[in-house]
Amino acid sequence: MAEPCPRCGAPAGVERCPQCGLLLSLYHASLEKLRRGPPRGDAPWPSSTRRLVFHGRAGSLLGIHIVNVLFTLLTLGIYYFWGKARVRAYLYSQSELEQDRFAYHGTGTELLIGFLKGLVVFGIPVALLSVVPQVFRFPPAVASALQTVLWLLGLFLVPVAMVGARRYRLSRTSWRSIRFSFRGSVREFVGIFVVGSILTSLTLGVYYPVFATKRQAFMISHAYFGSRKFDFDAHGRALIGPFLTMVLLFLPTLGLSWFWFSAQRHRFFTGHTRFGATRFRSTVGGAALAWLQLSNLLAIVLTLGLAWPWTVVRGVRFYYRAVTLEGPLDLGDVRQEARAASATGEGLAGLLDADFGVS
Amino acid sequence: MAGPRVWDAHYLDGRTPERRPARVVIGHTGLEITLLGGGGSFRWPLAEVRQTQGFYAGEQVRLEHGRGLAEALLIGDVAFLSALRAGAPQAAATFHDPARRRFRPGLAALAAVAAVAVALGLYLWGIPALAAVAAARVPVAWEIALGETALVQLAPPSRRCLDPVRHRRIDEIVAILLRPLPDPRYPFRVTVVDHPMVNAFAAPGGAIVVFRGLLERTDSAEELAGVLAHEIQHVLHRHATRAILRQASTAVLVAALAGDVSGVATFGVQTARLLGDLRYSREAEHEADGDGLRMLQAAGVDPRGMLAFFQAMQKLEGELPTGVRYLSTHPAAGDRLHALAGLAAQPPTRPPLKLLAGDDWSTIKRICRPAP
Questions:
Q1: With left for phi above 0 and alpha for psi between -120 and 50, is residue B285 left, alpha or beta?
Q2: What are the chain A neighbours of B59 within 8 Å (beta carbons)?
Q3: In angstroms, rounded to a whole number, what is the distance separating the alpha carbons of residues A70 and B288?
Q4: Which residue has the higher pLDDT, A23 or B126?
Q5: Rounded to an integer, what distance in angstroms lies between the CA atom of residue B252 and that of residue A80?
Q6: Binary contact (A73, B59; C-beta < 8 A)
């Protein structure tokens, strides 16, 4: 039966329109998908722009924070990890995409065990290497050799911690009950990190944008939502110019040029991130970023840390306002594919202060 | 009433990101869930259901069923929780009660007061007690090593006054003071630094630093002996070690209050390096004063030198800039002189020893200047 082609109106064949080449079965399948479309009627599908929405309030977070501080003091620090898990659970639960909240599945117990393991892996060697030379006065040659070992250990452990923290964090994050995961290999990242660090120091920092982009590419392109992977498609070459401009203007602008570079880097990294057909985009501006970070810092200092919840909520809102998801978001073939992960890297990252969370 | 209330919900199966509209009815022992659009219906026994979201304003209620990668039910209306608690009293404790939210601001205020009280308690009693216990267990070898590091910073080798003849006289005073001690445990040694500061420090482990400014203001060997006895007591009582531990713990406390514990390790390390900025408590100064005076008496040194020096320092207070004052790092209660005078008033058992009888003190105290 020759029904007219739904696109051009010409009398079509059974499978393919002879005039415009439209594949009828594919067309009807897509139409059906569109009809089934969005879970709720109020979100158009496929809409061109999606946003993350944050519903959290500084007041609620302040309440959580105060209770966390009290329990942390009463338990001489042990509760800290449970407090951290509570804050994360709150922030994730208040983050919405397409009418659905994110969820955090990590626990304080996991974080404490991760911290203790990190302490064994990192703390004991460092403590030994830094205390021993002080107690037993070694000759300078031995002491500086130990210093070098310490430095190398750091160079090796920082990337291990960064990958571990990301693996743990993503494995404990879900949206629509589908877990995120991170599948990059530690060995590969240690390679990127060590080579990048050496090249950065050899080129007096000029290589830094390429290094930073390689790190970001690794962190993004090995991240998964269920069975589907995120993609990152950029080389840091494009950032070298802005980076050198920032360095040149650093002193004349009293360091403010850093914020402009930082915003540009954020736009660059976000703009080259994809999830299937969805492309991310960021409109973070230098002035806005400078104002956000400087005023947050000032608020923390002036209130002796009490403003912390307010600065967190403000920061999350700032980034959620600036970042959009462009293009169709087709989740049809995404399946649950969770990966196990321990919190050791997270604990290590806490000790090393290498908390490079990518939201 | 037309049957039990039906609640709007969404169902996530835990395998796909598909969000399916559903209806929920609360039964006595379970939730009856019907998927819209012909997805069938099923029942979750309440004993297997746990709540993971919906504890705060602005959060949807999220119930999970199953272990690990669970199925989930999302309900927008928070009144569902109250209905659930009312409909299934035996399981009520498992679910959050939204009515309790109104107590939260009050509880948070209480928690804030309690946190301040606990922090103050830790600062005033907990940390000093902890530091005292811990300091007593630090091996002497560690203290000596730590003091060595501090000495390099407090007394840069290029600024030390090393004239061997006059330095030997100062060492002699230390030896006389230590003579009555059966086991001093620490290798005490004095380093004189060419600096106008009117001050003296004791690093852990027995290294004592005396600045030119102080040395030149003493009028006799007995006055210096008083200062040295005081500093030696700081070392013997491990006041510096205790102060380092106290400062490091306080930094941790501050970090805990500010909600940032990642910087704790750095804090601790930094404070340990700032030995020169250490402040002892008034109790520690009192202890060093009293035991220093007793040390002088035991060694047979006339304690009036110590008294005279402290008197002179008190007079100097108004004249010197803050940075170089002795009392700025040696705080004392107002009755310091009074207490010392009381102790010194006991009649000596033997006539006091005349320190460095054969030498001219005014030459020795100018060790940082060329010998005449």
A1: alpha
A2: 55, 93-94, 101
A3: 37
A4: B126
A5: 12
A6: no
Helix (H, G, I), strand (E, B) or coil at B46: helix
At B348 the pLDDT is: 67
Name chain A contacts of B257, Cβ cutoff 8 Å: 69, 73, 304-305
What the block records as the tokens of B364 is: 């020795």
Contact assignment for A69 to B74 by CB distance below 8 Å: no
Residue B215 reports pLDDT greater than 50:
yes
Contacting residues of A for B118, CB less than 8 Å apart: 70, 73-74
Give the A window 101-130 contacts with B, CB below 8 Å. Answer: 101, 103
Considering only alpha carbons, which residue of chain B is nearest residue A301?
B258
Does the structure show a pLDDT above 80 at B231?
A: yes
Confidence of residue B67 (pLDDT cuts 50, 70, 90): confident
Which residue from B15, B119, B146 is facing A73, i.e. has the nearest CB? Answer: B119
- Asked if A63 lies within 8 A of B262 by C-beta distance, the reply is no
Report the alpha-carbon distance of residue A175 to residue A95 in Å, rounded: 10
Nearest CB to A101: which of B53, B252, B266?
A: B53
Of B59, B108, B122, the CB nearest to A67: B108
| A&B contacts, CB < 8 Å | 131
Does the CB of A65 have a partner CB in chain B at under 8 Å? yes
| Chain centroid offset of residue A280 CA | 13
Global confidence as pTM: 0.74
Please compute Rg for chain B using Cα positions.
Answer: 35
Q: How far is CA B172 from the centre of its chain?
A: 37
Q: Which of B85, B114, B90 is nearest to B100 (CA)?
A: B85
Angstrom CA distances, B149 to A127, A203, B188, B236, stand at: 17, 35, 15, 19
Phi/psi at B206 (nearest 5 deg)?
105, 0
pLDDT surpassing 50 at residue A93: yes
More confident residue, A146 or B165: B165
Mean pLDDT, to the nearest integer, of B43-47? 91
Q: Per-residue DSSP letters for B152-175?
A: HHHS-GGGB---HHHHHHHHHHHH
**Exposed / middle / buried, residue B99 (Cβ in 10 Å: 0-12, 13-18, 19+):** exposed
Mutation target to probe the B interface, by most B beta carbons within 10 A, among A33, A50, A72, A73 is A73
Q: Give the DSSP per-residue string, B48-73.
A: GEEEEE-SSTTPPEEEEESSSS-EEE
Q: Are B258 and A305 in contact (CB under 8 A)?
A: yes
Handedness of CA B152, B157, B163, B164 (dihedral sign): positive
CB contact under 8 A, B258 and A304: yes
State how far the alpha carbon of A167 is from the alpha carbons of A185, A215, B134, B229, in Å.
Answer: 10, 14, 38, 59
